[in-house]
């Protein structure tokens, strides 16, 4: 789950990281009031959960409250990468001298968090990694010891920060690491952390991604979820405990088990098809869950056929088959479906489906071929 910039910066501030003064506005006149409070000059920043807002025109510098209102009107009417802007952050404008990148994420290979810093701040770190990899410095942090003072200093010296900023930088780096750890985040990033003309360090932008699997430990953070920013399909999927990722192909996939779901997508691709989604319905085949999953898949206009790949282990195939039939009541059936059902009691399961006019396939390859063929027939229709 991603947090907005303004939410991320509030968490930073709770950990002692300096942030600009400012507040969120839902309307242009609110933005004007906030700019007045800040003394006139302000930055108007679109709050949407995508990067590159600056390039898209979603970050604007206003010289007066009137201009703040005018620019907020423009930004609140924008869409950035398809997302409508519903809120703007109105921050005190900073006089920027230098932009630094500072972030923490997990290094899965090293199995510890890694803190990453670069003097190439402001632009996306992936771009720096591609173009100027030698300008990125890293320290690996023992989660039990936390970020040590010497590690922060190593980052500061490698970036050739002025000596008088070292201890403040160390304080910010350690605050960022604590933010990351306390929130069970998978990413905590300040980009840019700036040195102002008057020589202060200030976090101008913030991004935090929380680990969904740890959200139950942070009810306060879970409440920060901005449901307006999610696709309706993702919201539905979460409600039913389904793992769903929309993709760009035309073959809907419904599979029990994440590994099997990935294997299913691989097989579809290797036979020349394009999966429309990843969907793991989890164990069992509760009719309600299967029905919700089908609705989500069918809501995707690109879907031309659906492949259900179910492995009946502890849940028997005949139960699964009944679950599918129950789920199909009330679901529109124009889209062709191919079902591959194997495991305990598969004969009975297939018979139940055959009696209901639903074709089953004996192997995954066969099922994928049928689903691809069906999608092509649908495509010429
Ligand atoms: P992003 O494009 O979504 O990453 O948004 P940022 O908040 O990082 O803003 C993009 C860029 O706008 C920053 O890298 C800065 O160069 C600039 N910027 C943002 N806030 C200020 C500000 O208060 N003063 C000045 N001078 N520039 C700013
Ligand atoms: Mn940024």
Can you tell me the residue ranges where pLDDT is under 50 for at least 5 consecutive residues?
Answer: none
Quote the beta fraction: 25-35%
Quaternary organization: single chain
Shape category: elongated
Number of contiguous helices: 13
Radius of gyration, in angstroms, nearest whole number: 26 Å
Task: Report what the structure shows.
This protein is an alpha+beta fold and 381 residues long. It folds into 3 domains: 21-92, 2-Layer Sandwich (Dna Ligase, domain 1); 96-222, ATP-grasp fold, B domain (D-amino Acid Aminotransferase, Chain A, domain 1, 2-Layer Sandwich), CATH 3.30.470; 230-379, Rossmann fold (3-Layer(aba) Sandwich). Helices cover 37% and strands 25% of the residues. Strands 1, 8, 9, 10, 11, 12 and 13 form a 7-stranded antiparallel beta sheet that branches. A 4-stranded antiparallel beta sheet has the order 2-7-3-4, covered by helices on one side. A 4-stranded parallel beta sheet has the order 15-17-18-19, sandwiched between helices. Helix 2 packs antiparallel against helix 3 (65-76). The mean pLDDT is 92. The structure holds guanosine-5'-diphosphate and manganese (II) ion. The site of guanosine-5'-diphosphate has 16 residues, from strand 3, strand 8 and strand 11.
What attributes characterize this protein structure?
37% helix; D-amino Acid Aminotransferase, Chain A, domain 1; 19 strands; four-stranded antiparallel sheet; 13 helices; 381 residues; alpha+beta; elongated; Rossmann fold
């Amino acid at each position: 789950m991603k947090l907005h910039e303004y939410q991320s910066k509030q968490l930073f501030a709770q950990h002692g990281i300096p942030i600009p003064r400012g507040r969120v506005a839902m309307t242009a006149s609110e933005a004007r009031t906030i700019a007045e409070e800040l003394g006139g000059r302000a930055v108007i920043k679109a709050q949407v959960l995508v990067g590159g807002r600056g390039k898209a025109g979603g970050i604007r510098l206003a010289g007066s409250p009137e201009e703040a209102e005018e620019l907020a009107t423009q930004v609140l009417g924008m869409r950035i990468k398809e997302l409508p802007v519903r809120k703007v952050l109105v921050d005190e404008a900073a006089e920027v001298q230098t932009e630094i990148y500072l972030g923490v994420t997990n290094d899965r290979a090293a199995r510890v968090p890694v803190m990453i810093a670069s003097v190439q701040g402001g632009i996306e770190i992936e771009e720096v990694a591609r173009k100027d990899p030698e300008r990125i410095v890293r320290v690996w942090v023992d989660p039990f010891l936390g970020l040590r003072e010497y590690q922060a200093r190593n980052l500061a010296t490698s970036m050739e920060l002025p000596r008088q900023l070292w201890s403040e930088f160390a304080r910010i780096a350690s605050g960022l690491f604590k933010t990351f750890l306390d929130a069970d985040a998978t990413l905590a990033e300040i980009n840019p952390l700036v040195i102002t003309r008057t020589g202060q360090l200030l976090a101008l932008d913030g991004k935090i991604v929380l680990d969904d699997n740890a959200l139950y430990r942070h009810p306060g953070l879970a409440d920060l979820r901005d449901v307006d920013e999610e696709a309706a399909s993702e919201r539905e999927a979460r409600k039913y405990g389904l793992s769903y990722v929309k993709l760009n192909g035309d073959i809907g996939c419904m599979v029990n088990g994440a590994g099997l779901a990935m294997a299913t997508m691989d097989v579809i691709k290797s036979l020349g098809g394009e999966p429309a989604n990843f969907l793991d319905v989890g164990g069992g085949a509760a009719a309600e869950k299967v029905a919700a999953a089908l609705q989500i898949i069918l809501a995707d206009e690109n879907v031309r056929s659906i492949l259900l790949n179910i492995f009946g282990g502890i849940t028997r195939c005949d139960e699964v088959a009944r679950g599918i039939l129950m789920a199909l009541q009330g679901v529109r059936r124009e889209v062709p479906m191919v079902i591959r059902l194997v495991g305990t009691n598969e004969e009975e399961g297939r018979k139940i489906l055959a009696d209901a006019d639903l074709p089953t396939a004996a192997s995954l390859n066969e099922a994928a071929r049928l689903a691809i063929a069906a999608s092509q027939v649908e495509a010429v229709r």
